[in-house]
Structure formats: structure tokens, C-alpha cells
Amino acid sequence: MAKILLTGGSSFSGLWIAQALAAAGHQVSAAVTRPRADYQGLRAERVARLETFAQVVYEAPIASPAFLSLVQGGHDLLAHHAADIPNYRSASYDPVDGFVRNIAGVEAVLDAFADAGGRAVVATGTAFEAGEGGPEGGDLAVSPYGLSKSLTNETVRHMARWRGLRFGKFVVAGPFGPLEEGRMVWSLMQRWFEGEAGVVRTPRYVRDNIPVPLLAHAYVRLAETLLDPAADTEAVARPSGFVGTQEAFARRLAAAMAPRLALACEIDVLPQPDLAEPLVRVNDQPWLPGWEEAGFWDDYAAYYQRVAASGLLSAPA
């Protein structure tokens, strides 16, 4: 069993990562940025679930006194999954400002972590960074946000290795599953529950949509690899799920959801717009063979039935 300090545990993917780490027998402390009362709706549900398998410390953003106190308590792995990402989809996102926000205080945290006997750091990246996204990814980031993440993770890598810490990078593509909100599937579900066809606006994009439990399982494997004294001092995980066009993914989703939701789940495909993103952006480490796919779709459908019944599905996608 390892002691793991996780940031970003109240996020959709962060919750699943925390749960998978705990299920693997590790002791998880999750530092979140806000007071407990500030989490509302689905985010309140996520933190309530997080509390069932992790020690949750509220009002503890990275480098705050509360966070540094946690670090000094001694952990084997620092799982840095959080990121400051306001307006990250915008072409006007400032990559330098984003980098400065994301790196603020990290050096002091890594000093304290190493001094307290810490062994390894995992930083979460994105398939839109420089050098990621599959064979067509190339060496350029896709967006200002991708550039910001590239700068952030390379800096964390250097800071960690300079202190004798192992370093891992966990590259996220397109996770989906229960307890998500405001994603592509969310927008499709909004239309389906209204009795209308779901709209696919970028049908030709080839993307990597991975069920979030598999993403979390891949994270556990990376964490445990870094904590193995016989393993390399650096590792990168790029877990991959359903690779294909966004139209193909929407049709796969519709086929799985229609019988479970008793809805038509029809698809309306719009012409592919001329956008700046590359057509292909995927990971390269398959995680699908042998998993319990039917059970996942059952849970996913039940989640959206509950969200729709509660009225929360009306929130913007």
C-alpha cells in the first residue's frame, strides 16, 4: 500500500482516479480548493462520493499552507491531476498566463515533498500538447491551452527529477462516463431526452473516447510502475479507448443507449466545419480488450436517467 496525495479529486476524471487508487489498496488523500459548502449539484455528489474512500481536505489549493501541511505529512506519490483552466477552449487563452498560474508554488511543494520522503510525481497532460496526439500529432501543440500544458508538464518533470524524484506523465484524451457534465455526450443526451435527434457538429474529427473507469485503471498502473524500485525513473501513460470519428462514436453511443433508455437516440450529422484543430488526435495504448462493457453502458444509462429526472440535464453542455 502506498500513501498518495491527489490534486483535482473533485473533477470528473479525478474522482474516478481516486476511487481506482483506493480500490487498488492505496491510501488516498485528496486536496480540493474550495470549502465543502461551495460544491453544488453534480460536483457536490462527486465530493460526497470522494469522501467515502479518501481523506478529503477542503480549502487546500496547491502551495497553500493547508496543502504544504499535507505534503509534510509524508506521501509516496504526488498525483498532480488538477489544472487551472478557465476559458481553456478559447483561441484567446493566454498560454504564458496559464503556465504561470499552473506552476505557481509547485517548486516549494516539490521541495517539501522530497524532504518528507516522497518518491514519485505524476502530472496529468492532454493529447493536445506538443508531441502528443498520435502519429499525426507532431511537435506543435494544438492550441494555446495545449502549449500551456506542454510548458507546465515539462517544467514539473525537470523540477521533480532535479530533486531525485521519479516522474510520470499521464496523457488524457477523451474520457466519458458516469458523473460527467457538459461534454459531447451531455449535449446528445439533452436532445435525446427531449425527443429530438442528437447533433454531431464535428463528425470527421478522429478522437479517442475512453470509458473513465479504464482511464482510472491506467492511472493506477502508471502510479504503481513509478513506485516499483526496479522500474525506470520516468514513464508515460497514453491510455486509448474507442478510436474513430466523432460520428462513429455518437452512433456507438446511440446503439448502446437506445435500448437502455427506451429512447430513439437518433443522430443528425452536420457538415464538418473548417476548424483549426487537426483531424486526428488520439492516444496509443489500447485499454479496451477484456473489460465489462455491458455493465459500463448500464451504469452510464442509469446515470443519465437520474440526471434527467433531477432536472440537472438542462445545464449547458
Explain how this protein is built:
The structure is a single chain. This protein has 2 domains: 3-175 and 210-240, Rossmann fold, CATH 3.40.50; 177-208 and 242-312, UDP-galactose 4-epimerase, domain 1, CATH 3.90.25. It is built from 10 helices and 15 strands. The chain has helices spanning 12-23, 41-50, 65-72, 95-103, 106-115, 144-162, 184-193, 212-226, 246-261, 293-310; strands at residues 3-7, 27-31, 55-57, 77-80, 120-126, 166-172, 174-176, 198-200, 206-211, 234-237, 239-240, 242-245, 267-269, 280-281, 285-286. The strands form 4 sheets. The protein has a 7-stranded parallel beta sheet, sandwiched between helices. Strands 7, 9, 12 and 14 form a 4-stranded mixed beta sheet that branches. The chain has a two-stranded parallel ribbon with strand order 8-13. Helix 1 (12-23) links the parallel strand 1 (3-7) and strand 2. Helix 3 (65-72) packs parallel to helix 5 and helix 4 (95-103) runs parallel beside helix 6 (144-162). The model has no long low-confidence stretch (mean pLDDT 94).
* Gyration radius from CA atoms, angstroms: 19 Å
Q: How large a portion of the residues is in β-strands, by DSSP E?
A: 15-25%
Number of helices: 10
Strand runs, count: 15
Strand order of the largest sheet: 3-2-1-4-5-6-10
Q: What letter string, H or E per element, gives the SSE order?
A: EHEHEHEHHEHEEHEEHEEEHEEEH
- Main sheet attributes: strand count, strand direction, barrel closure: 7 strands, parallel
Poorly predicted runs: none
Could you report the average pLDDT, rounded to the nearest whole number? 94
- Estimated helix fraction: 40-55%
CATH class of the largest domain: Alpha Beta
Name the structural class.
alpha/beta
Shape: globular
Number of domains: 2
CATH homologous group name of the largest domain: NAD(P)-binding Rossmann-like Domain
What is the CA–CA distance across the termini?
39 Å
CATH domain fold name of the largest domain = Rossmann fold
CATH architecture of the largest domain: 3-Layer(aba) Sandwich
